[in-house]
From TrEMBL, chains A, B:
<feature type="domain" description="CBS">
    <location>
        <begin position="205"/>
        <end position="261"/>
    </location>
</feature>
<comment type="similarity">
    <text>Belongs to the SLC41A transporter family.</text>
</comment>
<keyword id="KW-0813">Transport</keyword>
<dbReference type="GO" id="GO:0046872">
    <property type="term" value="F:metal ion binding"/>
</dbReference>
<comment type="subunit">
    <text>Homodimer.</text>
</comment>
<dbReference type="InterPro" id="IPR000644">
    <property type="entry name" value="CBS_dom"/>
</dbReference>
<dbReference type="Pfam" id="PF01769">
    <property type="entry name" value="MgtE"/>
</dbReference>
<dbReference type="Pfam" id="PF03448">
    <property type="entry name" value="MgtE_N"/>
</dbReference>
<feature type="domain" description="CBS">
    <location>
        <begin position="141"/>
        <end position="204"/>
    </location>
</feature>
<dbReference type="InterPro" id="IPR006668">
    <property type="entry name" value="Mg_transptr_MgtE_intracell_dom"/>
</dbReference>
<keyword id="KW-0460">Magnesium</keyword>
<comment type="function">
    <text>Acts as a magnesium transporter.</text>
</comment>
<keyword id="KW-1003">Cell membrane</keyword>
<protein>
    <recommendedName>
        <fullName>Magnesium transporter MgtE</fullName>
    </recommendedName>
</protein>
<dbReference type="InterPro" id="IPR038076">
    <property type="entry name" value="MgtE_N_sf"/>
</dbReference>
<keyword id="KW-0472">Membrane</keyword>
<dbReference type="GO" id="GO:0015095">
    <property type="term" value="F:magnesium ion transmembrane transporter activity"/>
</dbReference>
Length: 451, 451
């Protein structure tokens, strides 16, 4: 497939067509494009131009465009649309997407928009979904699904399903419920294609069905769906009544966002920022971590300051500070990243003590190798005294082992206390290992060189 | 759903049952579990126990278990199975999963295993798929799909589909081809449920269909499928003939691995390692990056060594080295991470010069804030001379701006040259910014303090 590529010429052409109100040409041009591509185009236009396109193009297409827009852009565009116009867009969407948009509106606008949704069933479903926290299964699910009663026969099934399928964008599974709407199992589409129409549902359905509760977290849902390779999963309430279904495309976003969040935390960026955000938002996301690093640096400064006497006797010790610091930081980040990722994938098991022992051994191997090289360089290149080289080598090994153990221990501890271990990566772990590393260095120097 | 939780008791019980060869009880116990859960259990057992389970349980289930195992575990288990036994497992799998397993075998075992696959069509498909690089659409696709000829009517369609569907685990889309097997469009299952059986395919099919070429990269496929929310995509050859289809569950793995790889690179870990890998593998993944950091540290050492005279005149300058270094490293990682993530999501556009200007401004804001605090601390807490505090402040601003610009520039440059920009994050960018930061610091000190 030749992927759609946004070009400056295309954007200019669209801006020109908007300015000249060439609606017919504009409609033709855009109608060939996928909604995800139109969303990309709108990201390049200003708000008025975006609103112009949303108003011009059929709501059947623009409703999907709205769901694809970044939050900021969507907010700006929705501000410029009337409640009636927003309702017209929302009517075209599945309930989960509709709720995503409505939930971003101010409280009074919500009510106004919902009052314009004429289909009472659709409005009811949306209001229902507004109750759930967006980070739970309830917040991810849609009300559109195909379900059949266990007491029906296949003929009645197919008839009812044709009816229901008209409201469902993609049919994944056919869920089987009893008279109280309690989830009993599922029928696969394949079975339906290959079974005689005279069979009864209760004789052919598969009773083994994975499901989640409305209150399960989005991460749990993502974990279950990706572990068991599910493309859709039914959602039940506390009475096991079928209340919705979640599809894999919604979960792909959760998985990606989860991974990106960990990555950003490791790199010292809070909030979900993107390269194209404005400078103020980027500063807000980045400055706090730099300040942590700054306080670490100032802490290190006062440690070195406290050893001023040493500086006079063994000035050569000071040239190895960057080496000690960089090594401590690097090891800490490595150890914590591996644990954080393991925790995210649920692949960490076994005892804490065994894991710490392993990191200890790893630290000894890595530390020994690096200390060996450094002792040679220190002796031959920097002509350092014998005892100074020994000091640097022992300090390196100690610092590496220490950083490895801390980098492993802290994320596991945080995880056990229910805190996201990813906050313990990046600048946080680097800074504490920096300061601790320098402290260890001077302490060992004091012991060996005895000043 | 109450998620399956592996416990020490369960593992012990299973080990006991294996030792006592209690096959009946073992089968009952495991038959209730999902294949992904059995794979988790096998990860806790030794190779012989794993082989015992694979041999004991029906191939219909264990074949899926094999696909879920980590590469190392699978390799060990396959070594202990005969070619015939492997073939029996593979027969149960879809072609894409079958190829994933066969492609890991040594060349002569491959031939032997394939010779045991009695279904010639299945064997042909597998051999076909072995041709493709695993990081391409061809390497991801399966041969199992449902396709109909544009010249059929719906009745013939349904009849043929029932036949085809028996070989396909999940029916996503029905692809429409012409007499030469060239992809023409698709039929949705929903259409099929709601259309009269007398219609002709060519009158009801949707000609707009997304597809990828066999040679497209796995990342391209992942990008297209997640951008356009596709659950399956057909794969065509150079003549646009339909040769396979890729489902979203395979792509979810690609997306996750992509994100994890970037994260690991940023944290200074090469290869795809996990916390549970052995020490040797972990050392191999971590030591190279620590060595880069070490050479950086030694570089910094010789820079400081070169300014020995200064050390004597202004020893207080030395206590700020960790601060300069940590700040340079943190800023560099932040800037590069934001760009790398933007590049991975295809959300980076606009001119390079504008982006560098933005980072320059960001650096000024962050640098100004930090320098302001540090100048106060340096003056009041460390009682540094006026000119020394000024030196540290100016150096901090310069170092931050420099690190921000370099952190932005290098990933973009690498990306333009077709190199994965993620390699430029983590220890690599930290180390170069460390060294450069210290160089800038001493250079500015020299200019201001004039030694």
């Amino acid at each position: 497939m030749t992927t759609f590529k946004i070009t400056d010429e295309l954007i200019e052409k669209i801006q020109q067509l908007i300015e000249q109100k060439q609606n017919k040409e504009l409609t033709t041009l855009l109608s060939d494009l996928h909604y995800a591509d139109i969303a990309e185009i709108i990201h390049e236009l200003d708000t008025e131009e975006g609103v112009y396109i949303i108003r011009l193009i059929d709501a059947q297409k623009t409703s999907d465009v709205l769901t694809e827009l970044d939050d900021d852009y969507r907010e700006n565009i929705l501000k410029n649309l009337s409640a009636k116009e927003i309702a017209d867009e929302i009517i075209e969407l599945d309930t989960d997407d509709a709720v995503d948009i409505i939930s971003e509106l101010p409280e009074d606008r919500k009510t106004e928009v919902i009052s314009h949704i004429k289909d009472v069933e659709h409005a009811k479903d949306i209001v229902d979904l507004l109750r759930y926290d967006e980070d739970t299964a309830g917040g991810l699910m849609a009300k559109e699904l195909v379900k059949v009663n266990e007491n029906w026969n296949v003929l009645k099934c197919v008839k009812e399903m044709r009816e229901q399928a008209a409201h469902v964008t993609r049919v994944h599974s056919i869920y089987v419920v009893d008279d109280n709407d309690v989830l009993k199992g599922r029928l696969s589409l394949k079975d339906l294609l290959t079974t005689s129409t005279r069979s009864e549902v209760k004789d052919i359905y598969i009773p083994k069905v994975d499901y989640v509760y409305v209150t399960d977290t989005a991460e749990e849902v993502a974990h279950i769906m990706s572990k068991y390779d599910l493309e859709a999963i039914p959602v039940v309430d506390e009475m096991k009544r079928l209340v919705g279904r979640i599809t894999i495309d919604d979960v792909v976003d959760v998985i990606r966002e989860e991974a990106e969040k960990d990555y950003q935390l490791a790199a010292g960026i809070t909030n979900d920022v993107e390269a194209d955000d404005n400078i103020w938002k980027l500063t807000k996301a980045r400055l706090p971590w730099l300040l942590i690093g700054m306080f670490g640096g100032l802490g290190a400064a006062s440690i070195i300051n406290g050893f001023q006497d040493t500086m006079m006797v063994y000035p050569i010790l000071l040239i190895f500070i960057p080496l000690i610091q960089a090594t401590a930081g690097n090891v800490g980040v490595q150890s914590s990243a591996i644990i954080v990722q393991g925790l995210a994938n649920n692949s960490i098991d076994g005892e804490l003590i065994k894991r710490l022992l392993k990191e200890f051994l790893l630290g000894l191997i890595n530390g020994g190798t690096i200390a060996g090289i450094v002792i040679l360089v220190s002796h031959f290149a920097f002509k350092a005294e014998y005892l100074v080289s020994i000091t640097v080598a022992i300090a390196l090994i100690t610092v590496i082992v220490n950083a490895a153990v801390i980098g492993t221990f802290i994320p596991i501890l945080l995880h056990k206390r229910g805190i996201d271990p990813a906050v313990a990566t990046g600048p946080f772990i680097t800074t504490s290992n920096d300061v601790l590393g320098i402290l260890i260095y001077f302490f060992i120097a004091k012991m060996i060189l005895g000043f």
